[in-house]
Amino acid sequence: MFSFTKSPFWQRYQDIIIIFVISNVLIVSFMLLVYFFFEQLRIHENDPDTNDELLNQSWLIINRMSTVVLLLSLLTTPFAIYFPAVNDRLSLAIRLLAVAENINKFVYAFIALFWYFCESRIDLFRCSDGFNATVFAVNDFVNVYDLTDVAQYCQFLISLSRFLVVSFNGLYFRYTSRWPLAQLIFPYILRVSMQLAIFQFITNAYLYAKLRHFIPAIPYFFTCGLDYATNRNMKLLKKNGRNTSRAENLLMIQMMANSMLIWFNYILAYIVGIMLALYFGLNALFVFDAIVDFNQFLFFHLIASIISALFLRKSKERPQTAVKRLSNTAITIRKPHADSARIGSATAANRTLTYEGK
């Protein structure tokens, strides 16, 4: 009896199929949730709604909560920058991307808070009209070409690199390890290109409201697919008796935690938004927009930076009796303390995966 999972096609392309299925299920789910949310708002726009006073109070409370979260992230993000930078058990490309990810988050939070305090008109932070206008313009630019998205696209490249090093015997990883500095430009190019495409082709305000969150989120969902496939391959390596280093395992935890945050922020949050839209009117949209911003700051600035600081720092390797090396021809056992390459390195000549065993 024919079994698809035992066919040569599945054996060769199973990782690609898994990533494609998971990513597209998440993309379609999010697209339907966004569409259904706005349709419910349109249908129920004349239904009984929260009064303006309650709306203003709710928006003010959520806005202040967002401010507190961003302030806290300014304390945690420097650790998320420092620890990957000094962790020489990670490849150079991954270290640079992890540092760039958190620098983008720090800059975003700093500019957003600067604008908030200028707008608050507090005597201690009183800004001149000219300076306030400049800060507003910078903050508006940073929000339109969202640095938080740029940061998450850095995480997408980390996930792609890790996937390629544990898949296809590391055959294609050498391409991602080249020009690590040039890789840092890609997230900016991708985010700017998406926003320019939105401005160019989407002129309807109602359609723009639907797609302004959807289109930039597409790489987030591919990150989830890559992380699932990488975690699956890591488990297969362990099942086959091939040791992975502690640094690799910690990096895998960081990646999976990031994928969970994406699911919470984009899938679960919009399910809650639809529940609000079923029973409230247009004011619910303003409250929900504030909640979406708060979730993004909480998940991708504060919590994600704490996770990066905890799991991307250099830690002591657990004692191992042997470190196995996977080759396309044989598996050899190395003695403890033998030199091994950093995480993410791959020898193209013999398609070898190496793990650091310091």
UniProtKB/TrEMBL annotation:
Superkingdom in the source lineage: Eukaryota
Name of protein: Uncharacterized protein
Source lineage: Eukaryota, Metazoa, Ecdysozoa, Nematoda, Chromadorea
Record keywords: Membrane, Transmembrane, Transmembrane helix
Organism expressing this protein natively: Mesorhabditis belari
Membrane-crossing residue ranges in chain numbering: 16-38, 58-84, 96-117, 185-207, 213-230, 261-282, 294-312
